[in-house]
Design goal:
Blueprint (H helix, E strand, L loop, with lengths): L8 E7 L5 H10 L8 E8 L5 H11 L4 E6 L6 H10 L4 E6 L3 E2 L3 H12 L3 E9 L12 E4 L15 E3 H6 L12 H12 L3 E13 L13 H18 L4 H15 L5 H5 L2 H18 L2 H4 L4 H11 L3 H12 L5 E5 L4 E5 L19 H4 L7 H27 L1
Parallel strand pairs: 1-2, 1-4, 2-3, 6-9
Antiparallel strand pairs: 4-8, 5-9, 6-8, 7-9, 10-11
Helix pairs in contact: 6-7, 7-8, 7-10, 12-13
Length: about 400
């Protein structure tokens, strides 16, 4: 890189006990088709004892692009090293590369071109998994310019994206070092919300997400309380940045579905009574503050039912639903109103003692379409009428409350 010229992209690698995976990670950086003069690497060894730091220094000595290696005491999580790298970055864009993973050869060249051509602030490159299962729903097609509300990008909030550095600096964005899981989700969602456009590069695999044989992934380890910390932070960010209404509900689906709901899945059956009580206690303020009909109707019936029971602190009913699901039973589909409504009769459907509202079991059109005899067009008309009725009722209530 010529003195005084700004690199196009800074690759930030936070590394902790990353051997031997780091070797292929660095090889994938060295193999990038982008001109090395347009690239810089900042690698932070976060107190490793397995030769990670030495491997990084050997790479810096031979690499065709400028490489800065920083060695520090262990910080306890990925946020610290990423923030250190961000503080040193000079590129127009930054890309966060985990030391276990690797890049496709043309990844950086294609992503920089995508951002430059479309003037977008964040670029998502297609991800494939090696011994890991990555998110898939956002890779249907390449989108030169989109946003978090009109695409599925909210379901990939990991940090392995390319971000325009000016966006991050303008808003003083850094990773939250108080979070030990989900810190990347908070950072990435804020970037999506603040971005002047997001690009999705779906026709080339830019990133390979590698599953470690030793299972040492931060996302796989740690106390369940960390998941609630992550959900709380993400929900608070959404509440702060997005006004109440459909757009907020669309985003709230993500922390409810991906972060919170797994705590009330099969593992809940194995939890002790004490842990179950604690999980419900942790969930209660989140449900009270953020669980709305708009979020609920965007979920499948079994998801909505479980979260409804969490919201109402009904663990005994929740356990029945989980046992039903564990047995791989299929709920009876009941068609009503001339086929325009489909109820999925999971446990306690229309039980007077349980008292769960019917609409919790009502399948939305995308789920109902799988049921023979469902009349989609008529159902859509019915649902539109029902939504209008609910809105009129809410407006009337608000008017009375204000009077």
């Amino acid at each position: 890189m010529t003195v005084g010229t700004q690199p196009d992209v800074t690759v930030i690698i936070g590394a902790y006990e990353a051997m031997p995976y780091l070797v292929e990670c660095l090889a994938s950086v060295e193999a990038q088709t982008i001109d090395p003069a347009r690239l810089e690497v900042i690698a932070v060894d976060d107190g490793s004892t397995d030769g990670t730091g030495e491997c990084l220094e050997e790479f810096a000595a031979r690499a065709p692009m400028p490489v800065t290696v920083i060695r520090q005491e262990n910080s306890g999580g990925p946020s610290g090293p990423r923030n250190v790298g961000l503080g040193k970055a000079a590129g127009r864009y930054v890309f966060f590369l985990d030391a276990d993973d690797r890049l496709g050869p043309e990844a950086l060249e294609r992503m920089v071109a995508m951002a430059d051509e479309n003037g977008t602030d964040v670029v998502l490159g297609r991800v494939e998994g090696i011994n890991r299962t990555p998110p898939k729903s956002m890779w249907g097609k390449t989108l030169p310019r989109t946003d978090v509300f009109s695409s599925n990008i909210k379901f990939t909030l990991s940090a392995q994206k390319m971000f325009r550095r000016a966006l991050l600096e303008r808003h003083g964005m850094r990773f939250d070092e108080s979070l030990f899981t989900g810190e990347d989700a908070l950072f990435t969602l804020e970037a999506y919300l603040r971005a002047d456009g997001v690009s999705v590069l779906a026709d080339y695999t830019c990133y390979y997400l590698v599953g470690r044989d030793d299972g040492k992934h931060v996302t796989k380890t740690g106390s369940y309380t960390l998941r609630f910390d992550s959900a709380r932070a993400l929900m608070a960010l959404i509440e702060e940045m997005v006004p109440a209404g459909d757009k907020r509900d669309i985003l709230m689906v993500r922390p409810f579905l991906i972060t919170l709901l797994p705590q009330f899945g099969p593992k809940f059956l194995k939890d002790s009574e004490e842990v179950r009580r604690h999980k419900l206690e942790l969930a209660k303020p989140l449900m009270d503050a953020h669980w709305t009909p708009g979020v609920a109707r965007r979920l499948r019936v079994h998801e909505r039912l479980r979260l409804h029971l969490v919201a109402h602190q009904r663990p005994e009913l929740l356990l029945d639903v989980l046992e039903f699901m564990k047995a791989k039973k299929e709920p009876e589909a009941r068609l009503e109103k001339r086929g325009t409504q489909v109820y999925l009769a999971y446990p306690h459907f229309r039980s007077k003692t349980a008292g769960i509202p019917d609409d919790i079991y009502l399948a939305e059109p995308r789920e109902a379409r799988a049921v023979p005899g469902y009349r989609a067009a008529a159902a859509n008309t019915f649902l539109r009428r029902a939504v209008r009725k609910v809105r009129r009722t809410l407006r009337a209530r608000n008017f009375k409350a204000a009077a």
